[in-house]
Design goal:
The protein is mainly alpha-helical and 57 residues long. The protein contains two helices and no strands. It is elongated, with a radius of gyration of 15 Å.
C-alpha cells in the first residue's frame, strides 16, 4: 500500500466519523477525540514492517 493510499484511508476514516457524528449515530464527545485516536492507532495497523531503503532487516 502506497503512502498516498494510507493518507487517503486515514482521511476517509476521519470524514466517516464526522458524518456519523453529524447524523447523531455516534456521540459528539466520542467524535471530538476520535481523530486523535486515529492518528495514534491507525499507523500501527497500516505499518507494513518493511524498510524503505531495504537496509534494515
Amino acid at each position: 500500500m502506497t503512502q498516498t493510499q494510507k493518507a487517503l484511508m486515514l482521511a476517509s476514516a476521519m470524514i466517516g466519523l464526522a458524518l456519523l457524528a453529524a447524523n447523531e449515530i455516534i456521540p459528539a464527545a466520542f467524535a471530538q477525540y476520535s481523530p486523535l485516536g486515529l492518528l495514534v492507532f491507525l499507523p500501527w495497523v497500516l505499518n507494513d514492517k518493511r524498510s524503505g531503503c531495504g537496509e534494515c532487516k
